[in-house]
Write a structure and sequence with these properties.
The complex is a heterodimer. Helices cover about 30% and strands about 35% of the residues of chain A. Chain A has 2 helices and 5 strands, in the order βββββαα. Chain A has helices spanning about 60-75, 75-85, and strands at about 5-15, 20-25, 25-30, 45-50, 55-60. Chain A has a 5-stranded antiparallel sheet. In chain A, helix 1 (about 60-75) packs across helix 2 (about 75-85). The longest helix of chain A is centred in the C-terminal third of the chain and has 14 residues, at about 60-75. In chain B, about 35% of the residues lie in helices and about 15% in strands. Chain B is built from 14 helices and 13 strands. The longest helix of chain B has 18 residues, at about 355-370. Chain B is globular. The interface of A and B includes residues 35, 58, 59 and 79 of A. Bound molecules: iron/sulfur cluster. Iron/sulfur cluster binds near residues 317, 320, 333, 337 and 344 of chain B.
């Protein structure tokens, strides 16, 4: 459950609730970016996502590295991705 | 170095392994990796077989699923089984055994228990099901606690009155201190947790260096990160230094995330003490909801038994969590206790030492034995 999954910001969808749409694990889902309030997040940025919240801004190379590591985890990562796909944060 | 070939940069890994061998110079070192994510990487990639004989990695208590005591699972089930409750949880918690089964068993008996990816998904369920009491089973260290806090703020702002949180968030520093104070263990340093440190930063670890004279290096989750952090620890040991250093600068900054810390401070209060599986009661080691959020506190909203339940006799998770024994030294490991039928918590989450060793580590160990490498 402690995984950080990289995702790429597609658009900012709800300034009030600090939600952004990200491309993560092959799907587009909303996440909360409010914990990174001090950083101006823009479409195209990569973030590390934990339980539906952006926890750090990362660069593209780090995103690729993190993804590679996650894929090696096998089942634990697949289970997490299945939950991401069902996520309906709004 | 048969395991190195699968690394992203085998040449860099080989160079680090050589440096580690030179620096350790035949002497004995024991370093604790606090975080379960590190334990997973270490077993997944056979890192312990790359290190010289004298350099041992000891697994620590940093898996939030593993440290939840049995009584809290029983409490969760008691809440989940109340009429009208829709109980939501992260996947890993579903299979953790309580004294009479897991949440999965409660679900089979008819309780409405559902997996969610995020606390915000639980809040969404509450908004969509106004006739139900939606409870979120919050677990996790400072990595996860800010997410619960933001969700609670939103629930309060929107007046979602059928939403509450059963709070089991724990903090990372008190168990590190408990381990440093425990007479069982002689450690030469720590690999500091990665994701937790994105939130709390590096400052809270200073006591490890200043009061206990042990080095701590915060590390990332790749095999190369772990090797580099071990090398940084050995450099400190060789120089007779004890400092708090950061290997995971890609994600962790010195001051952490002040905004996340401020939101946590608003929504949570420290519990005077909290029971940890295998470690017993540790003071000021867990969070409850602050009084301003009392209406959203499942422990105040529902009758929670709150009974302390002893761990099963066969279970040695406590010793595993303190690094006193290795997973395979537990008497029920791989026989009565497997990921399909876990007896203890460490066999449930992929970050638990027993599950990581069962799924990956033992294969490396067998391979290492068969080629005559260090086992
Ligand atoms: S093998 Fe099972 S009971 Fe033994 S320490 Fe590991 S999780 Fe606990």
């Amino acid at each position: 459950m402690c995984l950080g999954i990289p995702g790429q910001v597609v658009e900012l969808v709800d300034a009030n609730n600090q939600l952004a749409k990200v491309e993560v694990a092959g799907v587009r889902r909303n996440i909360n970016i409010g914990l990174l309030d001090d950083v101006a997040i823009e479409p195209g940025d990569w973030v590390l996502i934990h339980v539906g919240f952006a926890m750090a801004v990362i660069d593209e190379a780090e995103a690729a590295r993190a993804l590679e590591g996650l894929q090696l985890m096998g089942q634990a990562y697949r289970d997490e991705v299945a939950l991401v796909r069902e996520s309906r944060i709004a | 170095m048969r395991f190195v070939d699968e690394y992203r940069d085998p040449a860099a890994a080989r160079a680090l392994v050589r440096r580690i061998a030179t620096l350790s110079n035949g002497k004995r070192f024991a370093f604790m990796e606090v975080c379960g994510g590190h334990t997973h990487t270490i077993y997944r990639h056979g890192i312990e077989h790359l290190l010289p004989d004298g350099v041992e990695l000891v697994h620590g208590p940093g898996c939030p699923v593993c440290v939840i005591p049995m009584g809290r699972i029983d409490d969760a089930i008691a809440v989940a089984e109340q009429p009208g409750v829709l109980f939501t949880t992260f996947g890993d918690m579903m299979r953790v055994p309580g004294s009479s089964g897991s949440l999965l068993d409660a679900k089979a008996r008819g309780a409405d228990v559902r997996f969610v990816y995020s606390p915000l998904d639980a809040l969404r369920l509450a908004v969509d099901n106004p006739g139900r009491e939606v409870v979120f089973f919050a677990v996790g260290f400072e990595t996860t606690a800010p997410s619960t806090a933001v969700t609670l703020r939103r629930a309060k702002a929107e007046g979602v009155s059928n939403f509450s949180v059963f709070c089991n968030h724990v903090t990372i520093v008190p168990p590190i201190k408990a381990i440093l104070d425990s007479p069982d263990l002689r450690l030469d340093g720590f690999l500091g947790p990665g994701h937790v440190s994105t939130v709390i930063g590096q400052r809270p670890y200073r006591f490890v260096a200043e009061q206990y004279g042990k080095p701590l290096v915060t590390a990332g989750f790749e095999p190369l990160d772990i090797l580099q952090a071990v090398e940084m620890l050995l450099v400190q040991c060789a120089a007779g230094r004890a400092d708090v250093e950061n290997q995971y600068t890609r994600c962790v900054v010195e001051e952490g995330n002040p905004r996340a810390l401020a939101i946590m401070a608003e929504v949570f209060a420290l519990r005077p003490h909290f029971e940890w599986r295998g470690l017993g009661f540790i003071s000021q080691s867990a969070l409850r909801l602050a009084d301003a959020y009392a209406d959203f506190d499942a422990e105040r909203r529902f009758a929670v038994p709150g009974v302390r339940v002893a761990d099963p006799k066969a279970c040695q998770c406590g010793e595993v969590l303190k690094g006193v024994i290795k997973p395979w030294q537990c008497k029920v490991f791989g026989t009565a206790c497997t990921p399909e039928t876990p007896i203890g918590t460490c066999m449930v989450s992929s970050e638990g030492a027993c599950a990581a060793y069962y799924n990956f580590g033992r294969l490396h160990r067998e391979a290492a034995l068969s080629v005559g490498a260090r086992a």
